[in-house]
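We store amino acids, tokens; thus:
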Amino acid sequence: MKEIIAIIRPSKMAQTKTVLEGLGFPAMTANRVLGRGKQKAIVGELGFEVDNKELLNQPGDMRYIPKTMLTLIVPDEDASLVVEAIMKVNKSGQYGDGKIFVCPIEDIITVRTSERGEAAI
């Protein structure tokens, strides 16, 4: 099993979710996050309200910008399909398109049923 963590533009969340659901991957966790990459923030990128305005207005070159972080757990054989789908929706060729991390998962347990492994996905 693989954990896929994708950090994407908030404006691409709905389309990414629709594509993943269409491929049979409706289960995911989404979080609003702040961060920055090599581009040192893109002005006007705000996709949601930020409670702590100080994070957006740091002195100097470093500004944090809102992103959406998706987390999915998929069988090993589906990881490439999911990564390619996320890339297809989110790749514009511009700074800020995001990052995707693929990590191994040792086990999953559903608390309610005690199912383990891929049966728990």
Summary: The first strand starts at residue 2 and ends at 8. Strands lie at 2-8, 29-35, 65-74, 99-104. The mean pLDDT is 87.
